Amino acid sequence: MTSAAFHVEAADYAVQHALLHGVRHAVFVGEQQVPPELETDELDPLSHHVVALDADGHAIGTGRLTPQRRIGRMAVLSGWRGQGVGEALLQALVAEAASRGWGEVSLHAQVHARDFYARNGFLPEGAEFEEAGIAHQTMRRRMDGAMRVQAADQVEAALSAVIHRARRRLLLGCRGGDAALLGQPAVLQALRRFATARHDKQALVLLHDGDPTTLPPALLALVQRLPSVFQLRQPADPAGQAPAPACAVNDNDDCYFRPMGERVEGELSLDMPARARQQDALFQRAWDDARDCEALRTLGI
């Protein structure tokens, strides 16, 4: 994986361990005050490691995949954060797990990084716990099928993942209770990222209750600022139609689907073309039968 400023490659631990530990020591020991003896362990020689190198060949980030099918030791030097290094490292590790035929991979995310892993397809599990004196959250991503979404924090993670992974087209089928969900920080951040990308893009939003004023103020402001990106419609005759499911579908073969609409139970499917095409077709049928939201005129859209 490459960019103009850095690239990610597999690392030979026996040969490149000094590079890997240099980054990890700077982040974990230097910044986070983790005891030095906890920075290394017996799994290092047994794990698959990746390293991010800048244009001059200096190590700027690292991560590993252990035999226990767990991603860990994800670290990026402070000056390189926010530039896609962590995401490139994570994608390389997920790709390696998939190439080994593993059905799923897990990780222990530091709580402050939970949204980062969520938008990359990992769902939180269970309660927070402490590891090396730092609050963590178990998260898991399945690669051989749909992931069950059963809790409120998993709903937010699933929705942010589909939005974040969208390229140029995003479909959102929203039920009444989704207004608050669309205002969650991780979801809003993903929507802003999609809507403000420099390339052409389109977000179709089907509001089953037909009232855009129920949207979170921050999202409504984004819709008003970028009317060329967002199109909002409502069912033409809600009383005469069966309640449509809540869903999010992108053009990257991902979809999040709640068949019962108002209930949180659903499933997240990543890199599953057939499932995404099915949900896309169902959404498009409902969209074609819908009409523009009447309240948009009062909002100047």
Structure described in brief:
This is Acetyltransferase. The protein is α+β, with helices and mostly antiparallel strands and 301 residues long.
Low-pLDDT ranges: none
N-end to C-end Cα span = 40 Å
Overall tally of structural domains: 2
Strand order of the largest sheet: 8-14-13-12-9-10-11-15
**Annotation field: number of helices:** 8
Level-1 CATH class name of the largest domain: Alpha Beta
How does CATH name the architecture of the largest domain? 2-Layer Sandwich
- Measured by DSSP, the beta-strand proportion falls in 25-35%
Kindly state the mean pLDDT as a whole number?
A: 90
The helicity comes to 25-40%
Number of E-state strands: 15
The CATH superfamily of the largest domain is known as: Endonuclease Chain A
- What's the overall geometry? elongated
Give the SSE order as H and E letters: EHEEEHEHEEEHEHHEHEEEEHE
Rg of Cα set: 21 Å
InterPro entries: Acyl_CoA_acyltransferase, Bact_Acetyltransf, DUF7931, GNAT_dom
Organism: Stenotrophomonas nitritireducens
Domain N-acetyltransferase: 8-144
Keywords: Acyltransferase, Transferase
Task: Give an account of the 3D structure.
This protein has 301 residues and is an alpha+beta fold. It has 2 domains: 6-142, Aminopeptidase (3-Layer(aba) Sandwich); 149-299, 2-Layer Sandwich (Endonuclease, Chain A). It has 8 helices and 15 strands. The strands form 2 sheets. An 8-stranded mixed beta sheet has the order 8-14-13-12-9-10-11-15, sandwiched between helices. Strands 1-2-3-4-5-7-6 form a 7-stranded mixed beta sheet, sandwiched between helices. A hairpin with a 4-residue loop joins strand 3 (59-65) and strand 4. Helix 4 (152-164) runs parallel beside helix 6 (185-195). The longest helix is centred in the N-terminal third of the chain and has 19 residues, at 13-31. The radius of gyration is 21 Å and the shape is elongated. The model has no long low-confidence stretch (mean pLDDT 90). Pfam families: Acetyltransf_10, DUF7931. Residues 8-144 form the N-acetyltransferase domain. Keywords: Acyltransferase, Transferase.
